[in-house]
Prior knowledge:
Chain A is mainly α.
Amino acid sequence: xxxxxxxxxxxxxxxxxxxxxxxxxxxxxxxxxxxxxxxxxxxxxxxxxxxxxxxxxxxxxxxxxxxxxxxxxxxxxxxxxxxxxxxxxxxxxxxxxxxxxxxxxxxxxxxxxxxxxxxxxxxxxxxxxxxxxxxxxxxxxxxxxxxxxxxxxxxxxxxxxxxxxxxxxxxxxxxxxxxxxxxxxxxxxxxxxxxxxxxxxxxxxxxxxxxxxxxxxxxxxxxxxxxxxxxxxxxxxxxxxxxxxxxxxxxxxxxxxxxxxxxxxxxxxxxxxxxxxxxxxxxxxxxxxxxxxxxxxxxxxxxxxxxxxxxxxxxxxxxxxxxxxxxxxxxxxxxxxxxxxxxxx
Amino acid sequence: xxxxxxxxxxxxxxxxxxxxxxxxxxxxxxxxxxxxxxxxxxxxxxxxxxxxxxxxxxxxxxxxxxxxxxxxxxxxxxxxxxxxxxxxxxxxxxxxxxxxxxxxxxxxxxxxxxxxxxxxxxxxxxxxxxxxxxxxxxxxxxxxxxxxxxxxxxxxxxxxxxxxxxxxxxxxxxxxxxxxxxxxxxxxxxxxxxxxxxxxxxxxxxxxxxxxxxxxxxxxxxxxxxxxxxxxxxxxxxxxxxxxxxxxxxxxxxxxxxxxxxxxxxxxxxxxxxxxxxxxxxxxxxxxxxxxxxxxxxxxxxxxxxxxxxxxxxxxxxxxxxxxxxxxxxxxxxxxxxxxxxxxxxxxxxxxxxxxxxxxxxxxxxxxxxxxxxxx
Lengths: 345, 376
């Protein structure tokens, strides 16, 4: 993003000689630390946990961490697009619920005779995209704040999932779909590769498409974006569609891993996802961040949870430790902006 | 002119204040009446008159229909309602205490006699609920959660009974089944529920009692998986990385976590080789128990959610109809533990089917048939 112009003044050049030989502006120390903060934190955590228990660094644990990060990363990548433009998506748990049930009921299962195989996964993603579309329209056309619109859509998702669930969770019997959750490709779960693929696609969208690039502008200064003639409603809606699609994909991934469609399959994911995005360095107010930063954030969350268990921290204390680490990370990331008041949309 | 305008404003403000005051007074009057009724001695007449059928509403208040346990609970209540020719109302609160209380209060304000079977969201909610029902002249049976020092006989005859299940028994029985399968030797990992839930603490205490009886079994690690399936998967995955081959069995405080652990074992290539036990008897766990040679899922515990939804409602109904005399009932009928069933491969068939009205009629007629004794 733009560099901080240290000592820049709008006044007329009083000393023309001085301004022409002024050296290039230097990025402030604090700014460098902020952008490097999350990766440093991640490395520090790995070193500390590795020193405390050598099993932490073992191959099988590393693969376990990768597997545990997969679903969280997919969710967080979609969420990043929404948070970048200053909104938030609280519907992920509901969308995951509906998507997992759609996948479970369309693939070979123990409730009906459907057998659509991988098309069921596509249907799950499409269901998520549909939720995202409705959330986006509610937010942009009806001017409902994003947290309210998505909270409502999340409840709708849980409701639809409960109706589909009808008293007992359908089990996924399709070998192909389940193999994505259970197989090993060169030691890693296929879901890990899916997450990496989504990360690459997300980065390409962020870097090379208008949805990504305009997202920064809309989040950073929406008024200016509107004055520039950017069709804000369209890009906001697209961001919600992306977030809904990743939630749908995450629901399908969870269904393939756990072998069921379950209404509560997304339990706890909403908070973890938002935390991963914010810890990575994307500001909740929007305008700064990106999926590459979110990847670091998701890894920090997974490494922290895994490491605390391996080191043997008491279960009663683990949650508190996680909370403290996250608060420190978020405070550090937003430190330079603490003097400016911004509203959270 | 200004004098006239001021007095006009004052008059209007005065009129509004008067109207508000009258409205408040009216509402205060209408809520005062039930309070004077409940100041009568606990064996008051209002609790004993049988009620006409058109004037009662059967209500089951649970967390949600999104999980099989509560869905079965509601189905059990439905069976009972059919048996007396009525409909039941199901209230779901999604884990929100305020919502549960306000839903119940709205029904109570409807004018009919409410017959309520409720699973209070937390222990502290139980008191507000039973007092609200008492004030409105309804009848309530609570299950699972209530404060330890609050008893039905201290509050009113409208709080018919409190039913719970001894978690230590459940946790102990599945642990024993697990240790027997392991031949009394080896290491196990334990997945706990949310750490400050009473069932989580009770079941873990049951596990620890079993561990004392089997000195050859070592508890390698105990972690919380928050009653959640995906968390059960991830925690098991991490613990397998931490302890490797030393893990000879998995004890989970509920089936959700146990089923998550099952998938983690499968993903690690240990499917069917490491036995797993849980509690709740959700349908998938029952099917896994049926296929335990391949899955390794040994046992689970059923409190029979159908019974919880139906027989408890029957008890409250009998109190309303005067068939069960609450005032003269002993403490062991006002507060008791129900029966839990250890489900293993030998008896899993019985639990796989939804019970019919015939199966449960005897329990509806005598809800105390499954009492295993007073709580505490």
